[in-house]
Amino acid sequence: MGAVRFLPLSLCLALGLAAATAQADATLERIQARQQLNVGVMLSGGPFGALDPNTQQPVGLNVDMANALGKALGVKVELVSVLPANRVQFLQQGKVDLLIANMEWNPERDQLLGHVPTPFYKVGGTAALPPGSPIKAWADLKGQPVCTSQGSSYIKALTEYGADIKAFKGSADSLLALHGGNCVAAVHDATLVKPLLASNPDWKGYTALEPQLNPAPSVIWTRLGEADTQARLDPVVKQWHTSGWLVQAEKQHQIEPMAADQFGL
Fold it and tell me: What's the pLDDT tens digit per position in 43-64?
């Protein structure tokens, strides 16, 4: 039997990094080869992503951005519905090429995924509160049952406030639980909660807690190491800002617009 040779650890790491980089560098090539961009989007309701009740077609700002990316790359777009509980896995496992899925940047997520450098929005969380709620500040949630989504970026902050977290598959289930009296508040992106409370008669008398919890930039997510994909898409996102396309799209979906200079552009 021949001698078994072991490569030095440093060389193994270098080879592993090279393999990962080679795989990452093939992402745009794969998109072009299949002439299709697969984008994970949240369709759980609200102005960023939902199903049109009349046509059952996906609508929302995230859907518009996904289609705009496809146009910029010259390929068709396949929208893949994801949930907070599975969106990271869908991207890591290659089921989607990108995520535009109500997932704001935070340091923990930055260890798992890469992202396009220029954000497209900035949002924090708010708590939907039932009529007559005694909750006046985030600290008042201590020891109280609070509904949110699995994988929500607000879970850590809510836990630090001492809230008893009730995590659901998506925002729709969380809000339904609040409506049924199973928690004292439901915490989600302000861009989902505020329009719901303002326009839906089923939520008359409900209020939103201010100030927003942990405001953070909304970004387009890639897999780790995909610097080529990020570099290709970043000028597209910047052009959305500087051309005014993004502001117009936000207004169309009744989202409070954010000017380009708020992102240093």
Answer: 988 889 999 999 999 999 999 9
Expressed in percent and rounded to 5, the helix, strand and coil fractions of the chain are 40, 20, 35
Scan for tokens 């007559």, then name that residue: 132
Structure tokens at 141: 């949630």
At 102, the amino acid letter reads: N
Domain 123-215 has CATH 3.40.190.10: yes
Q: Calculate the CA dihedral of residues 81, 82, 87, 91 and round it to 10 degrees.
A: -20
Beta-carbon contacts of 222 under 8 Å, excluding residues fewer than 6 positions away, are 27, 91, 97, 98, 113, 114, 115, 116, 229, 230
**pLDDT, tens digit, 9 for 90 and up, residues 69-124:** 999 999 999 999 999 889 999 999 999 999 999 899 999 999 999 999 999 999 99
Sign of CA dihedral 85, 62, 187, 117: positive
CA dist 86 and 80 (Å) reads: 12
Residue spans per domain, the chain? 21-120+219-263, 123-215
> Is the pTM value of this prediction over 0.90?
no
CATH number of 21-120+219-263: 3.40.190.10
Q: How far apart are CA 227 and CA 215, in angstroms?
A: 26
Is residue 101 within 8 A of residue 190, CB to CB? The reply is no
Asked if residues 183 and 221 have their Cβ atoms less than 8 Å apart, the reply is no
Question: Alpha-carbon distance 238 to 254, whole Å?
Answer: 21
Instruction: Could you list the beta-strand ranges (E) of the chain.
Output: 36-41, 50-51, 58-59, 76-81, 98-100, 114-115, 121-129, 145-149, 164-168, 185-189, 207-208, 213-218, 221-222
Tell me if the bond preceding 211 is cis, omega within 30° of 0: yes
* Cα separation, 200 vs 170, whole angstroms: 19
